[in-house]
């Protein structure tokens, strides 16, 4: 298993980052919040999870070990694969997911694209004893605050739009959601917070 990557950020795209390790470029699928903290040309360390399939080897990268551990544990629930697990962490912080499961807050879980009411109920039932108790760190199930990555240096809007498109929303819907959260942005917008607000806006629509 590849537990982490540590090296120079060679590239950053929609949903992926390339970390140069010993002259080899390793591609990792990441949440928008994790990507927002990476700077091309600068050193970075990602906790990683390697998903092995018959026809592919896919590496997923995370801001820290806790995020990686939650990613792996939520996949023990029926119907939750790596892409859906990544989407869950794009919408909610690890502690917010713990809070949602502990409180049986299916409404919070259905904000994740791809999770319906029955799926949320199954996730609560199957993960109740696997995620552990909320740590009390900032970050609620409704996304009103979080512990996600710091604000990106680049303009926030392209990152929010690309993050939404990567999660399956159309470009038109993504742009509309970005318009909806624009008033929240200030001189140093937190891309992760804005992304979660945009997802809530889309869920309400």
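-> sequence recovered:
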């Amino acid at each position: 298993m590849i537990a982490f990557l540590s090296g120079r950020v060679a590239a950053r795209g929609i949903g992926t980052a390339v970390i140069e390790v010993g002259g080899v470029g390793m591609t990792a699928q990441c949440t928008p919040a994790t990507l927002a903290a990476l700077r091309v040309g600068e050193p970075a360390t990602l906790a990683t999870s390697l998903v092995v399939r018959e026809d592919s080897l896919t590496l997923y990268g995370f801001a820290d070990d806790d995020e990686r551990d939650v990613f792996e544990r939520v996949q023990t629930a029926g119907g939750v694969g790596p892409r859906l697990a990544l989407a869950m962490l794009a919408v909610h912080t690890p502690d917010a997911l713990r809070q949602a499961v502990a409180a049986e807050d299916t409404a919070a879980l259905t904000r994740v694209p791809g999770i319906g009411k029955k799926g949320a109920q199954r996730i609560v039932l199957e993960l109740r004893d696997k995620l552990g108790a909320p740590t009390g760190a900032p970050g609620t199930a409704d996304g009103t605050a979080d512990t996600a990555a710091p604000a990106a240096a680049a303009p926030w809007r392209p990152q929010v739009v690309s993050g939404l498109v990567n999660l399956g929303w159309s470009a038109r819907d993504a742009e509309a959601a970005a318009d909806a959260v624009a008033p929240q942005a200030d001189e140093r917008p937190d891309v992760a917070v804005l992304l979660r607000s945009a997802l809530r806006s889309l869920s309400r629509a």
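The domain at 4-62 is CATH 2.40.50.140 (OB fold (Dihydrolipoamide Acetyltransferase, E2P)).
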